[in-house]
């Protein structure tokens, strides 16, 4: 169920069992609209996709929490991201964010472009009743948005009647994703071990 037409970065930010940081996408409870593989293919046709694992230290986590803003949980020790390349050029990075809406989880994919703006947003699964899913037009508000104080409900993102908890969770996930993306982009990239 595509929710927004053009996003270009993908980051994996799934909560894991207590104490283990972030885990890759798995079979979530609730209605599944797309698998992780399907979402990546939609976002990055004709691209080579590389999954990267990034370990965050305490300083990284504090900086990400600072950037995400008050009330946005950024307790991630490990982040899985998916870089898409076409002709040896990175065209986007994808992240998957699993979070609680009310009592059940949803999983979203955010694609972030080279300018650290959201280019695509897809809902992969939703555990709450489907009437709490906003329309695709509402999700399209996130396209082209960068991390700023205005990227929140009652800011650049309009609320949605009847799905306030979903809207809040989605806005927080967008802030978390962009904050983690900024922290990861600032980290020196380690060379791959020899033989790979």
Topology:
Layout: E1 10-15, E2 22-23, E3 31-32, H1 36-43, E4 48-55, H2 58-68, E5 78-86, E6 89-100, E7 105-112, E8 118-126, H3 136-139, H4 164-186
Parallel strand pairs: 1-6
Antiparallel strand pairs: 1-2, 1-5, 3-8, 4-5, 5-6, 6-7, 7-8
Helix pairs in contact: 2-4
Kindly summarize this structure in a few lines.
This protein has one domain.
Essential attributes:
globular; 4 helices; alpha+beta; 196 residues; 8-stranded mixed beta sheet
Q: How many separate domains make up the residues?
A: 1
Query: How big a fraction of the residues is strand?
Result: 25-35%
Number of helices: 4
Helix content: 10-25%
The class by helix and strand makeup works out as alpha+beta
Order of helices and strands: EEEHEHEEEEHH
Identify low-pLDDT runs: 1-28
Average pLDDT score: 85
What does the largest sheet look like?
8 strands, mixed
Shape: globular
Number of strands: 8
Distance between the termini: 36 Å
CA radius of gyration: 16 Å
Written account of the structure:
This protein has 4 helices and 8 strands; from the N terminus they run βββαβαββββαα. With 196 residues, the protein is α+β, with helices and mostly antiparallel strands. The chain has one domain (10-186). Strands 1, 2, 3, 4, 5, 6, 7 and 8 form an 8-stranded mixed sheet that branches. Helix 2 crosses helix 4. The longest helix has 23 residues, at 164-186. It is globular, with a radius of gyration of 16 Å. The relative contact order is 0.23.
């Amino acid at each position: 169920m595509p929710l927004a037409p053009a996003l270009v970065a993908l980051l994996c930010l799934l909560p894991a069992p207590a104490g283990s940081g972030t885990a890759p996408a798995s079979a979530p409870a609730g209605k599944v609209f797309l698998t992780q593989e399907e979402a990546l293919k939609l976002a990055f046709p004709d691209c080579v996709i590389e999954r990267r694992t990034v370990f965050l230290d305490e300083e990284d986590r504090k900086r990400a929490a600072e950037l995400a803003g008050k009330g946005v949980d950024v307790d991630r020790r490990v982040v899985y991201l998916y870089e898409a390349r076409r002709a040896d050029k990175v065209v986007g990075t994808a992240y998957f964010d699993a979070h609680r809406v009310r009592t059940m989880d949803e999983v979203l994919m955010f694609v972030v472009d080279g300018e650290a703006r959201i280019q695509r947003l897809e809902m992969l699964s939703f555990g709450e009743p489907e009437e709490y899913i906003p329309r695709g037009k509402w999700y399209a508000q996130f396209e082209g948005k960068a991390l700023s104080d205005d990227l929140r409900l009652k800011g650049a993102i309009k609320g949605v009647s009847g799905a306030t908890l979903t809207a809040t969770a989605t806005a927080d996930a967008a802030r978390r994703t962009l904050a983690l993306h900024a922290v990861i982009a600032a980290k020196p990239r380690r060379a791959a071990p020899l033989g790979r």
